[in-house]
Design brief:
Length: 288
């Protein structure tokens, strides 16, 4: 099949499409929202987009992904969250804390506070669903089945944490499987107009380099992961600083198919796991 994009009928359809209402989901980071142009409309991630977000282990990528899920919920968007590391109970504790601005220590076992939980439950009331698997998923087919189940319930926003854990085996086997999964997952998202955020590891060379800002070529999975992504968002471990309960670094938009690439200074509050973007007048406090 082919079509002539200069033909009058295509020009008419194009004009109509370009004037349709924008449907996008805020990310929780104002600058990231702003640079999501085109179908994103400067308001966040659009339907059909495939976003890769990478970071070293222990550098806050899961917390950032949960903050994006929280922003989607505040927007009235249901979320299908697939964690291949955490149980539903562990994931719930983290989400409840950051979504309600509660101290996570007061929601954990051993220090659980009924008073804090009462306030958190009140803040959660009325939120759209955040779907998580009942048990840890261990195969690619189980991930596919889970996504389809959430889709049937109206979910169009998915977060997979994280990509390389879908498969087992040696490094080469995981590498090849990651390439296949990325291709299939992106195609499914486009066909069904779903937003998909995939968390990823870096390859060994990039992961071990603390002297340079990471680049999208350092994603574990090779060129297919970079090429398939509408956006590549990288947490910069070369400029990461943590002091007690606060951590700062930059979220690098290494690739943006729909707007400019920028570096966004972000900060974690590990008391609540909340993430925020730096105000312009305080960016001097971020590591250089």
């Amino acid at each position: 099949m082919k079509q002539d994009i200069l033909a009058p009928d295509f020009l008419k359809k194009y004009e109509t499409k370009q004037q349709e209402e924008i449907v996008s989901v805020p990310t929780g980071l104002p600058t990231l929202n702003r640079i999501c142009r085109d179908d994103g409309g400067g308001g966040g991630f659009a339907q059909g987009w495939f976003i890769t977000m990478a970071g070293n282990p222990g550098f806050g990528k899961s917390a950032l992904a949960l903050n994006m899920a929280s922003a989607a919920l505040n927007h009235g968007t249901s979320v299908g969250y697939i964690s291949l590391e955490m149980s539903a109970q562990q994931l719930a504790t983290r989400l409840y804390a950051l979504h309600t601005n509660s101290k996570i220590s007061k929601l954990e076992r051993g220090s659980f506070s009924e008073l804090v939980w009462t306030d958190a439950k009140r803040a959660i009331e009325g939120s759209p669903p955040l779907w998580v698997p009942e048990k840890l998923l261990s195969t690619w087919q189980s991930v596919v089945d889970y996504c389809k189940s959430c889709y049937d319930d109206g979910c169009r926003y998915f977060i997979l944490d994280y990509l390389q854990l879908v498969n087992t085996g040696d490094e080469d086997a995981i590498y090849r499987a990651t390439q296949r999964i990325v291709t299939e997952l992106r195609a499914w998202g486009v066909d069904n107009q779903c937003t998909i955020v995939c968390l990823s590891q870096f390859n060994r060379t990039t992961s071990g380099n603390y002297d340079s800002t990471p680049r999208s070529q350092g994603l574990f999975g090779g060129m297919i992961l970079e090429a398939s992504s509408d956006l590549c968002l990288l947490l910069d471990h070369s400029r990461y600083e943590r002091d007690m309960n606060t951590a700062r670094t930059f979220l690098v938009t290494a690739k943006n198919r729909h707007g400019p690439t920028v570096e966004i200074p972000i900060e974690w509050d590990y008391r609540t796991l909340s993430v925020r973007e730096a105000d312009p007048d305080e960016e001097y406090r971020w590591p250089k």
